[in-house]
Amino acid sequence: MSLDSKIPQGPIADKWTNYKNHINLVNPANKRNLDIIVVGTGLAGGSAAATLAELGYNVKAFCFQDSPRRAHSIAAQGGINAAKNYKGDGDSVYRLFYDTVKGGDYRAREANVHRLAEVSSNIIDQCVAQGVPLAREYGGLLDNRSFGGTLVSRTFYAQGQTGQQLLLGAYSAMNRQIGRGKVKMYNRHEMLDLVIVDGKARGIIARNLVTGEIERHSAHAVVIGSGGYGNVFFLSTNAMGSNATAAWKIHKKGAFFANPCYTQIHPTCIPVSGDHQSKLTLMSESLRNDGRIWVPKSLEDAKAIREGKKKATDLSEAERDYFLERRYPAFGNLVPRDVASRAAKERCDAGFGVNKTGEAVYLDFAAAIKRYGTEAAFVKGLDANDTALVTKLGAEIVKSKYGNLFQMYYKIVDEDPYTTPMMIYPAVHYTMGGTWVDYNLMTTIPGCFSIGESNFSDHGANRLGASALMQGLADGYFVLPYTIGDYLAPDIKMGPISTDLPEFVEAEKGVKDQIEKFINNNGTHSVDYFHKKLGKIMWDKVGMARNAKGLTEAIEEIAALREEFYKDVKVPGTADGFNQELEKATRVADFLELGELFAKDALHRNESCGGHFREEYQTEEGEALRDDENFAYVAAWEYKGKPSDAVLHKEPLIYENIKLVQRSYK
Amino acid sequence: MKLTLKIWRQKNAQDKGAIVDYPIDGIEPDMSFLEMLDVLNEQLINKGDEPVAFDHDCREGICGMCSLFINGEAHGPDRGVTTCQLHMRMFKDGDTIFIEPFRAKAFPVIKDLVVDRSSFDRIQHAGGFISVNTSGNTIDANTIPINKDDADKSFDAAACIGCGACVATCKNSSAMLFVSAKVSQYALLPQGKVEAADRVLNMVHQMDLEGFGNCTNTGACEVECPKGISLENIARMNREYLVASLKG
Amino acid sequence: MAKSALLKSSLAKKYWMALTGLFLCLFLAGHLAGNLQLIFSDALHFNQYALFMTTNPAVKLLSYLTYISILFHAIDGIMLTFQNRAARPIAYAKNNAAANSPWASRNMAVLGTIILVFIVTHMVNFWAKMHFDENFPLQTISIENQGQKQDFYLTTDAGYIPVNQVETGGLEIKNRTEFYDTAAKVKVKEGYKDLHKITVAFFQDAKTGLIATLLYVLAMAVLAFHLWHGFASAFQTMGVNNPTYSPIIKGFGKGFALIVPLLFAIIPIYIHFFLKA
To answer: Which residues of B touch A168 (CB under 8 A)?
Structure first.
């Protein structure tokens, strides 16, 4: 099977407009005869469900949480990019397009990214019309921030919870359609398989998580918006329930999985405090504007700090190693996420880590407090040599900028970041890879679409800050509603699809068998036991720095772990009721396969790019070394029974508008 | 730390349920409250017992899924946090901790500590939106300037995470803080004013149908709300509803 | 309006609660002003005031409003309380409510019930006697004339009628306050019901006066708690809450809650312990 990305012809700026003008439409009366299933209700799924229902389709939406509003899009902090150029600082659709492709280390599809940049402005208009309370200036107009990797201010935000506000906007649009009966919402339902009839996606098998009932749902098309697979690492900034099951089930039914090894590791997260740790908390990237990152210069000091014999503040300036400033004098503490993360890991691996697990570096605000304090003392005409006064004034200014983050840190770590440096460590945050989709956002299964983080299309090998929200909403509000019509146009006379078809019976049986097996397995270890083991393999060998040896070992270890899991996992309780361990078991079973494909993809990609860093492929200074000649393609994997047998399909990435160059932050 | 947990166990919605004691040892002050329950569950599974069911998801205080009533307070003794952000250092070695589900007629128990909060969803279906099509062909976002103070207040109301702590805390199981936060978010913005009257009437009507109690202004909800949603919102909704009712 | 149902919705019940409550606060202020005459004025003025309060048509209207308010406030309150109870069928095993709300706010129903009981007994003791007691005394005054003490009824036209005129049958009292010429069967004057005397006697009664005083003071303490929450709460319910006015309203409400019941309570204490009979 060859990959057809269906990218329209013509100049990049006109592709989307021309394409929309020529695709098939479904008239409003016929839309009433078409059913669409949407799995996942985050920014992508929620906005898609609302829009499709508004257009007239009958939508069935599914989420495993108790309400669509809890989807993990809600946790995004920073903001959403849009090429509005409200600041008049030279922003444009082209610049947003260019920054996104470059930020993705030249591994994204040009046409998709350009379309994303084109519709970005509409997103802001839409959200404001829906009552999303985005931040404003005193004049009443919208405010912007600047984010990493760009030279303009184009990030719209709502304090530290842009994700929640945008999601509530999509959720409110959904609520309106639920109230009208156009969206039927299935909360606490989990999709456990895709049903394909005559080669087309025609329904899903879902488990009602409250009653345990296995349900068949049919539709003329199925849309997957189930998010990323960061939880394959067990510890990540993802929600506990975030899972890859929907995406993985469609992969097993024929949807190719693209670039699984592209994972974003975020540098500023609160470190792991012990074996009990269940998840990692992100601290906004903005902290790196004022915080200086360091570790002790000597191993003895690092050891003393780990053992609690010394404190960070006991070390003099001469005894500290500001390693980002040392290695990257030009960008200093503001190097991109992947670079900052790798540098921190390098220091900790060398034994300089500063918390009891040895995996943390300091993020120190003392210099910023002093700088701001001195300035404030000067402005107020006070004595700038009075250390106590300067510290007090400086702390007030830092508080006004980052107060809520400092408070959050204090609650979790129980240390006051105004007086003691924060401890941070990188953590898995976002997965750029996902199901392969064409320009229409359709997977390699006809009628099965994939939107938002669950597809691979827009971020290449590294995602820029504030771009995830943009992509989720662009897909759901403005792209899928057009392209799905083109696919559905021939189905208008089809009528409802029966759930009694043998394909439904068979898929349901598969799901029931798997559940039965778990319940009756009577092993000796909990699901978490295996998930943690998988996470450790992934983090140690498929994490921030990878090499052929480690990846080869990881592939074997994951396969062995998977076997052990099926033999020895213990799932208490029954299948016919609320059973959280059973939910976890079905999810971890999929992670155990996905993790192996992930490692296999990382092993095959003999280059370093964005979030994928292979130790064998680095410059003399230890920076990522891309190989555009051999690897400027999308690696789309076809499922063939088990991950190790997956077949690679390549979609070449052709850059007609942007020139490929090496990134440098010295 | 060594603790005695008194946890509400209930097999399903029909079961009567009861408090069961669980002694637990080896708890570290750095653990979050939910991680402490993870440890308990791991022990229960290894012993062959059923683990305690509890709702949780993001574990960073924003999804609103976690919902425990701990030692007589929604989300426990700390302020401005959800249960997932509560840490064990708030407790002392040897403490006895009561862990109960959020209790209200409108929040029926599904299992153990898991409750059904879909009543909140239904209230929002009744009017928690602005009726604008998602075509993207609306006016430019900067066409209508919005007073910063109003925009900030609207945001403060919109910060509600829909966890239900207000209902759980309220001696009357009233949902007024939640509903008023939703009503206020839109009522404060020009784009929301167009259908403000219908919205407040419909949402309050649905709220009443769900079987929540009545607000008696004790202020407990505001104290226990992890996002600090203000009682001003309830006053605003009272005002909006009164005006909308009088308009007829 | 269809869905608003200004009588049925939860919010409407609260509006009525607030409006009747605030009206009753006004009533309390008026009632207090009258009662304070027991301390700061003489019996005649007090009784004149009592007469005015029971006969003036505007005051009558207000008094009916007051009765209705009390009834409405009580019935509405009871209905709300039952609904609120039903909203949580299973109670918490442990509820640390003191951590998040004042005691008074959580106990308005209990406080209100006590106040209702007080109002009923209070009305039986004074209002009912005043209105219906056939043997309610009329105000008399003793005047010493040439070493001889003589009792007179005080009349509304500032005149005097010797008590013995009634005792000897020259005049008779009809309709509790009207003096009729027995022979001519003509109404000649009208007397004052001596509420002052009844009140003083009530609190100075050798057997029950102390208990009555203490119970009255206790009831005022309960009223203080009820007002402590109720006053500001009524404004919140009516939608008045903003950073500028709310502190003033809350401050005033607390002052009202302390001062009004305190002044009410001082009166029986004064009568019982300090007023010379």
So the answer is: 158
